[in-house]
Amino acid sequence: EGRHCSSDAVKGVLFHSALTDPCPAVKACCIEHLCKLGYYAPAFLKHLKGACSDPSDEVRVAAKLALVNVSPR
């Protein structure tokens, strides 16, 4: 959440962690931060859809909330 948080490099690291980190809490946190940053790249949206069926409750909830935030109202 620093001054460089919206850089492409930071978004890339967060997205990579959302995909690969072994800790569900980290994955969920990365999803939440990417959503706050307005990161809606096609690969991220595809990941969110898959994450809605993740074994972790934390990841599922974060993914579903993120998808609600990107959906037109």
How would you characterize this protein structure?
The structure is a single chain. The chain is an all-alpha fold. The chain is built from four helices and no strands. Helix 1 packs antiparallel against helix 2, helix 2 packs parallel to helix 4 and helix 3 crosses helix 4. It is globular and about 30 Å long. The mean pLDDT is 90.
Keywords:
73 residues; mainly alpha; 4 helices
Give the structure's gist in a few sentences.
With 73 residues, the chain is mostly helical. It has helices at residues 8-20, 24-36, 42-51, 57-70.
- How many helix segments? 4
* β-strand amount: under 5%
How many E-type strands? 0
Spatial separation of the terminal alpha carbons: 27 Å
Helices and strands, in N-to-C order? HHHH
Radius of gyration: 11 Å
**Largest sheet entry:** none
Helix content: 55-70%
General shape: globular
Contiguous runs where pLDDT drops below 50 for at least 5 residues: none
Average pLDDT reading: 90
- The class by helix and strand makeup works out as mainly alpha
